[in-house]
Amino acid sequence: MVDVYIFEQQGLKFVEIEDFHSSHAVNLTRGEQKAHITFKPTLEDQRLCHNCLETKLNNDFTVHYDVNRDLNAGQIQIVNGYFVHFFAPVNLQPLPKNIVFIIDVSTSMWGSKIVQTREAMVTILDQLKPEDHFTLVKFSHHISTWNEEMTIANEENIEKAKEFSRQLTPSGMTNINDAILRGSAILRKAHKEEKLPPRSASILLLLTDGDPSYGETNKENIRRNVKNDLGEDVTLFCLGFGMNLDYGFLEKMALDNQGLARKIFEGADAPLQLKGFYDEVATPLLSKIYLEYPENAVENVTRSEFQTYFDGSELVVAGKIVNNSLDSFSTSITAKAELGNLTLITNVGVSDTENLLEKQHYIFGEFTEWLWAYLTIKQLLTQRMIEPDPEEKQRLTDRALEMSLHYGFVTPLTSMVITKRVKKAAPVLTAKKVPPSAGKRKVTGVDSDPHFIIMLPRQQQHVCFNIDEEPGRIINLLTDKENGISVNGQIIGAKKVDTKTGKLQTYIGRLGIVLSDLGIFIDISTESIVVHDSKGRTKFPWNNIFVKKENFSIQVSDQDKFFIFLPIDTSFEVVLHRVWKKNEIHRSFLGFYTRGESQFSPRTHGLIGQFFKEPTIDISNIRPGPEFDKPIATMQVKVHTSSYQGTSNGLPDPQTRAAIW
């Protein structure tokens, strides 16, 4: 049974329920400010067939609603000394936008990617408004433009740009640095020559599928160059196409410049994903938005300055009220609108607001505080991601961790630190020291072909080794009988032999995780996640979920990362690597990583587990190998000496991207 209660002070504009099996079991009643939705399926409604035990109700039950909005200062809620402010004005004239599309046409875009990019660009160009200005920059190692000037979006120019888009052809390497700087220079020149409306929003939209490989390739230098060049008046959005790219780099670069990044997954709907993202930023309504609150009456206020407000979005600010004797709470908002400067002011009674929410049982007492904590943690993690100074980065980490633990939020940070910040131990082909300043998180796991990634913290060494097993073979990754934990992986093969290497590449295609003390078995494939327990079988898609039980919890985030948090203060992470279904050679596969190895028992074994207690390892007799950059060496583990006449496999750590041996 599902029971949903909604109460909104502003009044309900609409309430909709997505199409769902057994819609006759759904009941909706609503008034001006309240709605109540119930879903009570019968046993027959739930069964896949008359005699089946399996359920057909595997999809989400989703309710969409919105509130009545107007051109005002928004809504303020105050509960237990914390406030939250929702600001989403309507009836505003859109700001003209000045947009430069920066499109990667390097060799890696060959095939479906470039076809889908052409299709998406034609659709997006049709959505430009007559008051907009635009141009296109295409780049590989060579950079060229459709027009060196920002061009008005009239019908003739749009048709010319669409024809340019249809002719996009991949070749060459990837020069991201110079491509963005070229787009920025075109915008800056147009502003300087006063060819653009003074009240407008300037945007760079980057689409790429790879890492920089030509010109400036140091990513920190690229970030610095872009930030210095764009300044405060241009927003950068980054779209990462496919799986073979450093998404973290794109995300940091976008956040540096008041924007955001988005992954575009390969597949038939990729053009829709591209268009969907563009729709989110297609209609800027305000720029330079500042929300101000009573001086000396609030503290720990979340972000309250915003570069741009887009149609369909909402700005949310929260904070703590420190003046307990405050009778009224005022807010002042200033922004630049298309018709001139905008100022909005509102004033609410503190006790009146609290009493109204309490009377309606709108939210339980701590909700506003939790929302403030959520926004603050999210802000700290964003600042931490882009902060170059190690000491400040650590301060942000400590604060975010402290709040995450206090409020019980599961975040990438808590999943990493609650489990004691990873110890990776292990064997390998040969080892290379990783600089302490690399600042990458330490991970032990198995990924790709498959190769095993081990970190030896005491010796500051990354090591890795490969295994060659036939498809279908099941391998034991770790077994800890003392804690009732076992993890097995099944090998799958590529669709055919890679003509470049002459080998059939293999991967981990399926994982089985047994938690015998909890009576739980988890079956993970590239298609779904199935949890078996005493109550039966529950199947989850690779969509964002969070399920918490008494002794453990599971979470899927970003639609490709599956976390299992265990009662012994450790966790597992499974990464789904999606490959385009029509790829002639490769197929989708899984990566498996562990955190908190020190919590496992000393008798833990398995291909990964046997190295949780860091062995003594010594690399000696390093000498030239068959290739100049692939030496061979002797590695001594504990008391056993093995001479490996192998070479560096040249593979990067798929999480840290650091070179490993």
UniProtKB/TrEMBL annotation:
Residues 98-281 form the VWFA domain. One of its GO terms (biological process) is hyaluronan metabolic process. SMART domains: VWA. The keyword Signal applies. It is found in: Secreted. GO terms for molecular function: serine-type endopeptidase inhibitor activity. InterPro entries: ITI_HC_C, ITIH, VWF_A, vWFA_dom_sf. The keyword Glycoprotein applies. Its main location: secreted. GO terms for cellular component: extracellular region. Keywords: Glycoprotein, Protease inhibitor, Secreted, Serine protease inhibitor, Signal. PROSITE patterns: VWFA. Belongs to the ITIH family. This is VWFA domain-containing protein. It comes from Eptatretus burgeri.
